[in-house]
Amino acid sequence: MMTEKMMIRSLGNEPPLLADGRRAPDKREVSLRWLSGTFLTGITSSVLMGVALFAALDGRQQLAIPAEAFASINTHEDSAVTRGGRLIAPAIAAKPSDRAIMEVSTVVHDGDKEIVRRQPFSHVKMRLAANHVATEDYPDFDALAIFAADEAQPAPAARTGAIYGSDVESEVSLKTVPFPTGKSDFQAAPGMTLDEVEENVRSNGSALTDGATQVAALYYVDPQRFSNEDNDVDLTSGLSARVLEQNMTVSAPESITPQTEEFADDIVPARQDVTIVKALMDSGYPEPQAKMLSANLAPPLGSDELAKGDVLRVGIIQKGEQAKLIRASVYRGTRHLVTIALDDKSRFVEASEPPRLDAIATAFDDNSLSVPAGQNLPRVYDGIYRAALSYGMTKDMTALIIKLLAANVDFQAQLRPTDFLEAFFSVADSSGRATPNSELLYVNARFGDTVTRFYRFQDVDGNVDYFDQDGKSIRQFLLRNPVPNGIFKSGFGMRRHPILGFARMHTGVDWAAPRGTPIIATGNGTVEKAGWDSGGYGNQTIVRHANGYESSYNHQSAIAKGIVPGAKVRQGQVIGWVGTTGESTGPHLHYEMIVNGTKVDPLRIRLPGGKSLAGEALAKFQDERKRIDTLLNNQPVDQVASK
């Protein structure tokens, strides 16, 4: 055990020795130095971490990569993201199938006749996130205008009609009459014997040519019976043997789908002296791909830089959202300098110049499209209008697409890089631009994970509407909000009445909006009541819909002209204006929904879909849908947005 004396003896009891006459440090001074050092160390560490984080983000405003951006990353092993690489997909070059003009036979009913004619149609596939430039001004976003806008209807003489199953060379007029099942005015001729058939063929043999279809019905006659030394008729001339090499397989043509591999060229013009890596990265290619292509292109080119006026042409194999680089060429002006391409061992080697593209000469035109960074993407509404107008669609046709998609798409949301719109519509000529009489036949839209596909169909009465692949109307039966610009204020259920002061059942939903805000009908129907209600609802309009549904609009400042009992209204039509008449504390719309005489919650009740085709109408629609799908090589959709 160590005693106090032993402790003093081991440590000493003399004061510490100080050199140069310095005094012993004050403990308070030591604490101040430690505090200052700790504080400066913390500030320095924070600054360094902030600089490192900013450099890592490279100006991006979000830490996590959105799911749609991650889904579009090229997952091919040759394009694997390495440490330090940027997790963005390469720029998707324009595919040859983005726009096509085709001549299609259509049939229009005119009384008891059917007129078949050839008509040009435009089939476009629009990647909405590209920098499309609208050819004309379009209306600003207005939720009310989306539902209340009138749909332009072409004149009956300019109607597109239905897709005809066969091609015609010119306009044909057909008249269908019932087949006579009873007594016929035509005399039945007796059947021909084989000898008579043979004699008929020999006598008309001089009029027949190789492959003539007139003899196709004579399959039951031995063709050798018509052979002779003069060889006046040779029915076997159209027959030939096809010899195939060994170990060779002949496959059927493959239909084009979104997952079909397609080749595309991406043109990258150099507007100033720039390195190959920077030119590619500025065009959206990830750094690993840019460095890989530059490393293989620099040796045969003799430099890793592009001069002002050079054009870099990149060949890409595309499959869905994935893109693989397989070839690269450099042009000085329009003169070819060098080309490299992948060989069988996936190595880049020098290659001959690929077939010349007109895009090389027009590379510096300011009309090329590219996909901007995610944070710079416009709203869905603007993206649809800009793309549609740049592809030749009219403002009325685009407004119709907006209206038909309104139930499933948030137009004020930001576009995603994968958002896509496909349309098929009639045009006037091979220029591919729609006219006021053009009609929209088909739309396939993908926004995020939601796919909406619908087809145009004209019934026997001449009414035109749009249906999904099962024949259900794409339009909602009833809208849940009759004031698109309104703010939800009070729901359905028990609540304390603001005027009466006691608990009372609130049998509707309140939507607040400034006085005079338009109110639209939530569905097609007939006005049952329009006028003053003495029970506290003020100016009230009740519309009767199909299948026992009614909608009630209350506290209106005024009722629209023409809204009287018995009047027909359509979904989206303005029927009145927001007010505060009756027992009301402020301008709002008290909206009620009544089903079989019982008031229900408009926001919670499961509404039926729009009208569905049945019977003969459904069969005709399915035939029309199949013809359109065959023309466009459509595949069944995995998911269709529910209403």
UniProtKB/TrEMBL annotation:
InterPro entries: Cell_wall_metabolism_enzyme, Dup_hybrid_motif, M23ase_b-sheet_dom. Keywords: Hydrolase, Membrane, Metal-binding, Metalloprotease, Protease, Transmembrane, Transmembrane helix, Zinc. It comes from the Bacteria. Its cofactor is Zn(2+). The chain crosses the membrane at residues 32-57. One of its GO terms (biological process) is proteolysis. Residues 1-22 are annotated as: Disordered. GO terms for molecular function: metal ion binding; metalloendopeptidase activity. Residues 504-602 form the M23ase beta-sheet core domain. It holds the Pfam family Peptidase_M23. PANTHER family: CELL DIVISION PROTEIN YTFB, PEPTIDASE-RELATED. This is Murein DD-endopeptidase MepM/ murein hydrolase activator NlpD. It comes from Rhizobium mongolense.
